Amino acid sequence: MKCIHFIINPIAGSSNNIVTKDILQKYFVDDKYSLTIKLSTHKKHAIKLTKQSIDEGATIIVACGGDGTVNEVASCIVGTSIKLGIIPTGSGNGLASNLKIPKIIEKAITLIKQENITQIDVGTINEHYFFSNTGVGFDASVIKNYEASNERTLYNYIKASLKSFRELNKQEEVKISIDNKNTFINPFMIFVSNSNELGYKISLTPKASLRDGLLDAIIIPKISKIKVVVFGVLMLFRKHQILKKAQVFQTKSIHLLRVKGSVFETQIDGELYQIKEKHIFISLKEKSLNVIT
Ligand SMILES: Nc1ncnc2c1ncn2[C@@H]1O[C@H](COP(=O)(O)OP(=O)(O)OP(=O)(O)O)[C@@H](O)[C@H]1O
User: Fold this and answer.
1) CA 46 to centroid of ligand 1, rounded, Å
2) Residue 22, CA distances (Å) to 27, 53, 106, 264 in order
3) pTM
4) What is the C-alpha separation between 263 and 261, in angstroms, rounded?
5) Which residues form the DAGKc domain (predicted)?
6) Ligand 1 cavity residues, CB under 6 Å
7) Structural domains of the chain, with CATH
8) Is the pLDDT confidence value at 170 over 70?
């Protein structure tokens, strides 16, 4: 019998696309499965629930939510033989979209039952994992403002972006080391991605692959507000690489050193993290997560 656990984030996305016990029981009727359903009740709760599921012998753990929920669940099973299922009920669902996992709950469940596995790379930033992307600068500021809003919708992402735009000029100097080359910049944005999608079909790293053993990065130094607008428009058409100051490249690792300021404000898979260490080391664990796709 297969021991399959579902970790459901009831507030992900617009909250009207929720995975329920009724739906799951309809699809997992036969004796082949032992089904366990858990609901997260607060931030980071899915980590605790997943660890319990591992102890309870789950062989498939399904994250039902957006990239934040996927991060909490998947972080616990990196490097194990446990299979990760995803039912994308979040707002952005960047990773699921990259993996072509359907947003329609019933279709995602059908996929899980087929159990086709793809091994994907996993990004690391200090002691944290990321599966989609991480960043310092403008994107982290957007996430900070987004988290302060009470609804997780595209409209609130746009509002948060406008607020971050008004708050520009807060950047602190950072030393960046890539392949033994050091540069000092006041970054508008340092964005590092494992996946080719941010969510909502928007991408800063359209050429990124989850299976190529490389991180795709884009570094943009401090730019004028006009150039930020130009960057935003180009990004919608996936043409932002043509911005002269944008440095787009692939690498295995990036090292950042904070020169000023007391903390690195970063976003990790769309969640805000304050990193107190002076150093940030971003790297990759190749093909270390089994995802049902
Ligand atoms: N019951 C809950 N109440 C409040 N927050 C919760 C609850 N359960 C989980 N969370 C938190 O909700 C946050 C958002 O989850 P998630 O990222 O899955 O959804 P989303 O933001 O709508 O999707 P996406 O990241 O794809 O845009 C996560 O930080 C998670 O820890």
Assistant:
1) 10
2) 9, 21, 12, 43
3) 0.93
4) 6
5) 1-128
6) 9-13, 40-45, 65-69, 72, 90-93, 152, 199, 270-271
7) 2-115 (3.40.50.10330), 128-285 (2.60.200.40)
8) no
